[in-house]
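Troubleshooting log. The previous structure file for this entry was overwritten by mistake, so regenerating from the original sequence record. Sequence copied from the archived sheet and checked twice against the printout by T.R.
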Amino acid sequence: MRRSRLIATRTQRSASFTRALLGIMLALLVAVPFVSPKHLLLTAGDIFAPTTAHAVTDCVAQTDVPQAECETLIAFYNATDGANWNNNSIWGQGNNVCGWVGVACDDSGVSRLFLANNNLNGSIPPDLGSLANLQEISLGGNQLNGSIPPLDSLANLQTLDLS
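Regenerated output below.
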């Protein structure tokens, strides 16, 4: 008796799943004529693409740091292939610059840039030296190249790691 109840329950679940699947397929068949063919083709890259930051931050609207510092961070992200960083969570998204991974701020602006071992590639843009309040720059363990930009304006800099 118990076995027949178990089989009946499995049969009901299977039937429910089949009805749901058929409903989805029917909805797709109805919708397909209204969709452009280019929107129907998905690649593995579309499905499994890594999360990337998009520069949608409005540096004028954000109030965490001066506008120029926000723009410098966006330029840094772009110059170091930010889309392919190991962790680029929320970089360039929203207006909370001080909440971006590896960025710390105090009342004077950006105070710390800690992006060690994060797969940064490229060269450090010259305007990094305009982040006058920086106390720490930690970029070791990345694939950075080119010359080190002038950092003489960083009077508060205590730690510089480019190893």
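The chain has two domains: 2-37, 50-161. Archived copy saved in two places this time.
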